[in-house]
Amino acid sequence: MSIPSARAALPARPATAPSRTAVEPTLLGLEVLRFACAVSVLLWHYNHFYVVGHSHQGFSMTGQPLYAWLKPFYEAGWLGVQVFWALSGFIFFWKYARPVADGQVPAWRFAVLRFSRLYPLHLLTLLAVAGMAWLYRSRHGVDYVYQHNDLPHFVLHLFLASDWPGRSEWSFNGPIWSVSIEVLVYGLFYALCRLGLTRWWHVVGLIALSGALYASQATAHPVVLCVFFFYLGALTHLVHEALGRLPPGTRRLCLVAGSVLLAGGTAATALGVMRPMFYVALLAPLAMLGLLRVVRPGPGPLADLIGTLGHTTYASYLLHFPLQLAVALLSGGQPDRLPLASPLWLLAYLGLTFALAVPVYRLIEMPAQAALRRRLLPR
Fold first, then answer.
1. In whole angstroms, what is the distance from residue 343 CA to residue 63 CA?
2. In terms of C-beta density within 10 A (0-12 exposed, 13-18 middle, 19 or more buried), how is residue 350 classed?
3. Global pTM exceeds 0.85
4. What's the burial of 326, exposed, middle or buried (CB within 10 Å: 0-12/13-18/19+)?
5. Distance of CA 130 to CAs 127, 140, 145, 146, Å?
6. Which of 136, 154, 166, 329 has the highest Cβ tally under 10 A?
7. Which residues pair with 52 in a beta bridge?
8. Which of 326, 369, 367, 333 is nearest to 349 (CA)?
C-alpha cells in the first residue's frame, strides 16, 4: 500500500547518500507481510465480480474459488488494511522518527516525500475510474459497487481526503479510503515527533488512548483505529530494536513464546472466542517480529523478488478495482458470463493485477515520484 519501502534510504539524506541497507540488513520480512496483505485485500474484494450495479447476483460466499483454502481471506480479508497501518507505523518509526525529532526533516520535505509517493498513481487511477464509472452508468443506469460518484466526492478524492469526513460513503476508487485516513495519521506522527514524543511510554499511551476510544465507541471515525494500529507498529519497531540487544538464546526463547501466543490466538479465533480485530492486533506485531527473524536472504534473486513483490503492493491496491470495473464493462455488466467459480479465473485476476503493478511501479510511480521531488525539494 502506501508505506515506504523497507529498503529505502533515509529521507533526510541527499539522493547520492548510500542507502540504509548498506549498513544493516534489509527488512525483507516486512515486504513479505506487505505482499500478503495486498493478496488478502484482493481476495476480500473478489466478490465485486458478482456485482451488478450495487447488488450481488448469483453470489455465494462458499462458492468462490478455493473457498475451503481461502476462507479467512474471503470472510475477513479487509483486515489486511489494519496490518498495512501497523506496517506503516513500524517503517515510519524506523525511518523517520529520530530524524524528525532531531529537526533533520523539515515539514515541507516530509510532506513532499509522502505526496510524491502517494499522489501520482492515486490521481491516475481516480481519473481512470471516473471515466469508466461514467461509461458504466450511461450503459446500466446505476454505478458499479461504489455509489457516491458525484462532484463533491470527486473533489474530496482530488485532495486525497475521501474519508476525512468519517462517513462510509464509498465512491470512485473506493480502496483509497484507507490511504486518505493514513494521511491524517502521518500529520499526527510528524507533529508528535517534533514534540519529542517518541519514547516507548508515549507510544503505549497513544495505543491505550486510541484503543479505549475505539472500544468505547466514542467516535466511529476510522482515524482512531488507524492511530491504534499505526502506533502498534511503532511499538513493534521498538520491541524489535530491544530484541536485537538481547543474547541469542533469549531472542530464540522470545520467538518461541511469540509462536505459542500466536497459535493460541489463532485457535481462539477459529473457535469464535476471540474477535477477528483483536486477533489481527495480536497477529500484526508477532508476524512482523517473526518474519524479520526468519526472512533474511542474502543479496541475490530471492531478495530481489521479495523486494519487487513489496514494491508492487500500492499499485496492486489501487489497480484491482479499476480492473474489476473494466471487466464489468467488457462483460456487459453480466457476471454470469464469467467463470467466477474457476480457480483459473481467480489466479488470472491475481496474476494480472500484480503483473500490471510491476511496470506501473517502475514506469509510472518511480519516474513521477522522482520528478516531483526534483521540482519541489530544495537542492
1. 11
2. middle
3. yes
4. middle
5. 5, 15, 13, 11
6. 136
7. 55
8. 326
CA distance 160 to 153: 10
> Quick one: which of 73, 27, 80, 20 has its CA closest to 293?
27
Per-residue pLDDT of the chain (379 residues; tens, 9 = 90+): 555 555 444 433 333 333 333 333 468 899 999 999 999 999 999 999 999 987 888 899 999 999 999 999 999 999 999 999 999 999 999 999 999 999 999 999 999 999 999 999 999 999 999 999 999 999 999 999 999 999 999 999 999 999 999 877 899 999 999 999 999 999 999 999 999 999 999 999 999 999 999 999 888 899 999 999 999 999 999 999 999 888 988 888 988 898 899 899 989 988 888 898 999 999 999 999 999 988 887 788 888 888 888 889 999 999 999 999 999 999 988 998 999 999 999 999 999 999 999 999 999 999 999 999 999 998 7
